[in-house]
Amino acid sequence: QEKPSRLSAALLGEDCEISHEQVYELLKYAALGKGHNAAQPSWCHIYHQSHLAGVVVIVLHEMSQLHFYKFYLQFKHLRRVFRHRFTLRPSSANFLANLCGDEANLNPQNTARGSTSTSSQCATNSSDLQRDPIIQKYGEEKQGLTSYTLTLEELKKNDYPMKGHYLFILGSPGYEGYMYTECDQQRTDNSPLFGLDCEMCLTAKGNEVTRVSLVDAQGRCLLNELVKPESRIVNYRTRFSGITRKMLLPVKTKLADIQTRLKRMLPHDAVLVGHSLNADLQALQMIHPSVIDTSLLFARNEGRRFKLKFLAKAVLGKEIQCEQKIGHDPTEDAKAALELAQFFIEQGPAKVAELNLEMLLTTERLTEISPNKSTLKPQQNTVQREQNGPSQLSRSCFLDCLQMTGQKPLLLGRQEPDSSGLCQGNLSSSNKQILQQALKDVPLSTFSIIQFSLDPEHVAPHLLAGICKKVRTKLTDMLTIYAGPFDESFCLKTVRKEFGKCGPIRSLTIMTETYQPYVCIQYEVLEAAQLAVESLNGAEVAGSCIKVQRPVTATMLDCDVLIKELELDIENEGVIYVAGLKKSLTETDLQEEFSQLKDLEALFLPRDLQSGKHRNCCFLKFLKPESAVDAIEVINGWAMMGSRLRSRKALAPGHLWRWIWQMDHSHEKQTGDILSVEKEQQSNFEQELRKKLKKLDQHIRKLYRRLQNNTLCVVLFPGVN
After folding, report:
1. Are residues 189 and 287 in the same domain?
2. Is 623 among the domain residues?
3. Are residues 240 and 307 in the same domain?
4. Helical ranges in 537-574 per DSSP H
5. Where is region (Disordered) located (predicted)?
6. Is the pLDDT of residue 511 over 80?
7. Ranges assigned E (strand) in 167-205
8. Which of 1, 266, 417, 465 could form a disulfide with 270, with the two C-beta atoms 3.0–4.6 Å apart?
9. For residue 523, pLDDT beyond 60
10. What is the mean pLDDT of residues 552-572?
């Protein structure tokens, strides 16, 4: 980040290739952040990670960069919305396990050393314990319950309803008409604790209470009542609330009845305990002066909060909010919050901090040895730590760490990892069914992996080989131009020099099949070929007025459309191509020459991938698209060290021209060793695949539109090998 222009240049050039490890770095930091010792990715920087609403990874199985560029026009949404594109290096490991950070695939050296410096592990020495947010907030010594009740400032900061007079801040907005419990007696460390939880439904008015539970310090249920909301219910939220229309039909109890009963039941020195209790009190429209909020009590870094379900399992060894049940049980939740507060008070902050750290380590050990065993009671954890000492663990999947913090990752698709980390097929789910499920579940999850797949008949090797051959042919044709006619005695050196001003030439051949000589020129970058067509068609070269055109073949019939769409590609926004440079110019020289251009952000000088030498062209990236357009007008005809420059909008991002070079130099020349495919069969196959990929692009568009603002979205084409 000290030199942002270098990062931008990397996005323009050869460094647009990343590994599975780097994808893992990005996803891990985006999902966990500094709160779990996750480090910023080594190859890019995420600003304000704590503001991310979620992370969504869309995996297009069996699809690769080959599919993206062969069916480029079909991926209309993907190429217009997703700003950054990178080539993903192939991996022999299981793709999904690698994506999630399986240690054996990502960093075997760490396994050999027994490295413990990972995101899902926490330090075990005293200096690190001092940095624990629980210790920083409460200290190490045990204290009475009054030390853990929220202060006036904390009540205000966390949106608790507050009284407008007496001991409370004057003029608290929005709480007029709320009932005050009148529990004004001085609290002591012997004051009684009561667990409270509510379930809400969405009404025309907003969230309204539909069920209330209150438990005492012994865990006895004092109140478990359904409540009829005042306004019409627009969403019962049965999946979470457990409330259905049928349940509320006979209910006569109103909110005012519940308020009166709660006020009567609570002693004057009562302390209410709950998880994010502010929401419950707001829904109840009640004000209570003394509360313990377990979502704040078990403090985490950067304001993160553990979910109640996770805390109950990790600290108490209890399973609550089970998936087999329809909705949450407010009595169960109230009791869990109460027991968590009692555990914290009885054990003290130091024990709780140690427990959390050890719990992460123990869960990792259990995940690696036996994924099905994930629950140990706190007392067992502490004993094992004293007996065994610090454990040496390899890195486990960061999805486990998400689950430990109460965040349940969402995994949808035909391929799901089994307990061994391998993928199992679930061919009963179509892409449409996966999309429908994703549209419902993704907005509720902080980390989602959505997998779409092609049908088996669309990944047949011999058919894909045919596509590969066609893509290579089309790319070659787009890089090729024909120029002529020339006089019989024309100077080939003059032609090479003139056409070389448009960009690096790969080959130049004289065509002898025609009445007058023509020249076939193949360039190394698409911009050079297009610039030659635009600037030299009709020009006088080597004493002849010539025509410049691309090959006329079936694959080139949509070339003009493709060129236009490449110009509009969001990755080329604000990027221009400049040709005609002297090869002796260095990157520093060019930066000085172009420094007068307004809003210039980065410069990239390509190298030959074999020799490593600079080419006679460069790419310039501007902060604003309009500045790029202005720069083209300025540069065209600009003389630099005696050489006239030519410029146009960029067509091919760095990863594309690198891929073109790899395609051309690949040892797989798709010759006689490839099974011959009937033309009709190949044509039908491509037509079906074209429709399939267009539909997938529409799926991505629908899912993308459903995402919350500030969501990081990554689409992966892992390929077939």
Report:
1. yes
2. yes
3. yes
4. 559-568
5. 371-391
6. yes
7. 179-180, 193-203
8. 266
9. yes
10. 89
Alpha carbons 711 and 702: distance in angstroms, whole number: 15
- Rounded alpha-carbon distances, angstroms, from residue 152 to 159, 172, 217, 289, 304: 11, 12, 24, 9, 21
My answer on whether 252 and 342 are in the same domain is yes
In this structure, is residue 478 part of a structural domain? no
198 with 55, same domain? no
Ranges assigned E (strand) in 227-282:
233-235, 271-274
Q: pTM of whole model > 0.85?
A: no
Pair of tokens at residue 234: 């627009």
- Within this chain, do residues 179 and 313 fall inside the same structural domain, yes or no? yes
Look at residue 721 in the predicted model and tell me its pLDDT: 58
Segment 376-428, tens digit of pLDDT: 333 333 333 333 333 322 334 667 667 666 677 888 886 544 433 333 334 44
The rounded distance, in Å, linking the Cα atoms of 463 and 678 is 10
Q: Would the CA dihedral through 487, 488, 489, 491 be positive or negative?
A: positive
Residue with tokens 């073949």: 553
Q: Are residues 147 and 282 in the same domain?
A: yes
Q: What is the pLDDT of residues 347-368, one digit of tens each?
A: 999 888 877 644 543 453 344 3
Element (H, E) at 209: strand 206-215
Task: Read off the CATH number of the domain in which 207 is found.
Answer: 3.30.420.10
In the predicted structure, residue 179 carries a pLDDT above the cut 80: yes
**Residue 663, pLDDT score:** 63
Same domain for 295 and 156?
Answer: yes
In this structure, is residue 268 part of a structural domain? yes
State the Cα–Cα distance between residues 75 and 699, nearest whole angstrom: 11
Residue 543: what pLDDT? 92
Domains identified in the chain, total number: 3
Beta strands in 580-675 (DSSP E): 600-604, 617-622, 639-640, 643-644, 646-649
